[in-house]
Design brief:
By secondary structure, this protein is of the alpha+beta class. It has two domains: about 30 residues, no CATH class; about 80 residues, 2-Layer Sandwich (Alpha-Beta Plaits), CATH 3.30.70. Helix content is about 30%, strand content about 15%. The protein has two helices and five strands, in the order E-H-E-E-E-E-H. The strands form two sheets. A three-stranded antiparallel beta sheet has the order 1-5-2. A hairpin with a 2-residue loop joins strand 3 and strand 4. The longest helix is centred in the last third of the chain and has 21 residues. The radius of gyration is 19 Å and the shape is elongated.
């Protein structure tokens, strides 16, 4: 038995995915094709916290985001978000959303700079 959403496998007798609550199927459908092939990097993050904050902000604005070199499962080799083995973490968006995403991220930087001036 398989979950058609998260593609987890279950032993016979289960009828619903514990994670997704989706009804299990006997066979998985073919894997989905990538939705976006043309991605643009809009942020190279110095650490994972900044990467996730930026990702959250863009997703709140309706822009799908993807991360590269997201190696949180890697036990060693990470220094302040930079993985020595993989390189920096990048935030990517569909190319058609790159200009709007960059403007949103720049507005965040402008807001932070303004707040620092007031302090």
């Amino acid at each position: 038995m398989f979950c058609p959403k998260c593609r987890s496998e279950f032993e016979p007798g289960y009828t619903e995915c514990a994670r997704c609550e989706a009804e299990l199927v006997d066979e998985l459908p073919p894997p989905p094709k990538p939705e976006y092939n043309d991605l643009a990097t809009v942020l190279v993050a110095p650490n994972e916290t900044i990467l996730m904050l930026a990702k959250s902000r863009l997703e709140a604005e309706g822009i799908p985001c993807f991360t590269t070199n997201n190696v949180q499962d890697l036990v060693s080799g990470r220094i302040a978000g930079y993985c020595l083995a993989m390189g920096p973490q990048e935030l990517q968006v569909p190319a058609e959303d790159a200009e709007r995403a960059t403007a949103i991220l720049e507005s965040i930087s402008d807001e932070e700079a303004e707040e620092e001036k007031q302090d």
